[in-house]
Amino acid sequence: MPRVLILHTGGTLMMRGGDPSPLAPDVYTSDLFAELPVLRKVAEIESRILFNLDSSDMQPHHWVELAAAVHASLPKYDGVVVVHGTDTMAYTASALAFLLPGIDRPVVLTGAQRPLVEVRTDARANLVDACMLATMPIAEVGIAFGSKLLRGCRASKLDAWGMNAFATPSCAPLAELGVTVEIASHVLAPRPPTAFDPRIEPRVLAVRAFPGLDPRLLIGALRVDVKGIVLEAFGAGNVPHLENSLVPVIEEATRRDIPVVIASQCARGAVDLSRYEGGSAAAKAGAIGAGTMTSEAAVTKLMVALGRAGEHKVGAAREAFRSAWAGEM
Ligand code: ASP
């Protein structure tokens, strides 16, 4: 039998409640196997509670603790499953991918839109899929949801109602679970594990550009010790450069050695700062394009890159966004 470790961090999957009281984290017990005895047929499973949080309460220090637990456990199991709330699962999956660049077996996050104890739930299928995928030769941090395995650092939660909550709009699924399990050919080759580096810089600000955004609000952020900015710009990475221009803010941030990374508000297509004047003015001011990366991946990668950077932060961030660490672009 393959061996799988389930690390529980919280989320709807193990919650109870609902109408009229809000869903809230429940006491997690070995009930998991009482609810879903079939799991014992998939693998020899051990489980551990790391946290029991609604994932909207996850913080960067939780990612580091989780990554450390995965890093320590991975050599002893065929794969690790992380039970997690859906709300910030794409951030955690991205952070894990960047904190654990060397993995040689699967780390599969999963969760559910409805709790496991309910009759009509997606939790059973997602958990069974996640545990099966954790036994397969897939050396990636993935999200198992809606009969697919998605690359974690390219995923976004796109649906708060439907059972197919996640998508990777610019990356095909790593695996699809139909009558058979089809593993795609773009799954990364195993990378030899490296020593765990827990450094992370949480003082990153993500801002969505919109018509009318007053640049003085961003200048204010520079004064409260922000260490890096992810600007979700329009289309191919364009920012306003006429009225309410954001270009002086980018210049000022870069002068203070605060990297400004530009991601796109579009789910598909790449940031190309040379395509329009708004992008090229931002690039001249020092902005760094995030290519096809999601905002979730850009924010978490910037946090990890800044955590590891020495003196020249803008240079370190530029270097980090030049190449993929875990298939994120
Ligand atoms: N609020 C929940 C969470 O992210 C939602 C879910 O799990 O689906 O923990």
Strand line-up in the sheet with most strands: 4-1-5-6-7-8-11-12
Low-pLDDT windows of residues: none
Largest sheet: 8 strands, mixed
Bound molecules: aspartic acid
Which word captures the global form? Answer: globular
Helix content percent band = 25-40%
Q: What is the CATH class name of the largest domain?
A: Alpha Beta
- According to CATH, the homologous superfamily of the largest domain is L-asparaginase, N-terminal domain
Beta-strand level of the residues, as a percent range? 15-25%
Given helix and strand content, the structural type is alpha/beta
User: How far is the first residue's CA from the last residue's CA?
Assistant: 35 Å
The CATH architecture of the largest domain can be given as: 3-Layer(aba) Sandwich
Report the mean per-residue pLDDT as an integer. Answer: 95
Radius of gyration: 20 Å
- Give a count of the beta strands, DSSP E runs of length 2 or more: 16
Number of helical segments with 4 or more residues: 10
Order of helices and strands: EEEHHEHEHEHEEEEEEEHEHEHEHH
Q: Enter the CATH topology name of the largest domain.
A: Rossmann fold
